[in-house]
## 1
Amino acid sequence: MPDKPEPSTGDNLGRIDDDVRASFRFAVIATAAAGLVLLITSFWLRGCGPMTDVSTAACGRPERISLAVLSPLVLFGTACYAFVKTIRVWRVRRTWWGWQGVGWFLLTLMVLVLTTFLPALAGSGLSAG
């Protein structure tokens, strides 16, 4: 009967260590930062309506679109950082899967925020004409 194969020590699956804690902490901070940017943007743009003078700050088409994509840009940037951190941690043979999970979580959250809040925040800035 063959001997039992030794468990792989390369990916540390199932082991929660400082790398996994750091990635979880990063995900919480990145999500909170994007949420804060979204909250500030929504308060800033709440005064813009169909009866608002277009010359006011943040109510023109380019300004509304620019402000509406800020939160997804924060999430995209932090997701890219998490994927780069995944490669760096993997190269030194530490627990990399936490960072990859955080990267995919932030990227998925970015798509969700982009499709949910962009039409509401950009408003008439997205319409042609």
## 2
Amino acid sequence: MLRQLGVDAALSAESRAGGLPSALPGRDLLDTPALGISPACEDALILKEQLMIDPRFPLASWFLIVSGAGFLIVYALPLLLAPLRWARWFRWEVASSPTDLTVYFGRCLGGVAVAVTWAALAAASDPEHHVIVFDLIAVACGLQTLIHVDGAVRRTQPWTETVEIGLYAALCGASVAIRVLLLT
């Protein structure tokens, strides 16, 4: 919290020089006088919370936004809403009469994927204080890489799933690199 206030104090100096509006939306939600926060510092704090890209860690923010939004659109929502259609798009053979269990597992995986992408998008504005999201992405993508390698070796998956090995490995590596090199 003190470190955060230090950043906000630096931003408040910029606000005095650059002229942030004195009444930003949400100002009345904080009891800043009780916290000992000056109005100028409060303006910077509110403005920083409204930014989607953290100016201190733009690469981390962009990684979370691009990977989160892309995964949400291509994988998470289609799996949640129409798992068998998603399977056909990715060249899986779908039985003429799929079981309820197949649809159930697909939708469950889609629900988990939506939750992970939501966490990534929510963390984008302040990645420094949400490093656990990078760990979550690294573990999830690492496991997906291993699962897809196993499917490729055993030849039990369509070629589209084998191509995803590179995608998951790259996301895992990028998440670990951002976490270790930028955020620690």
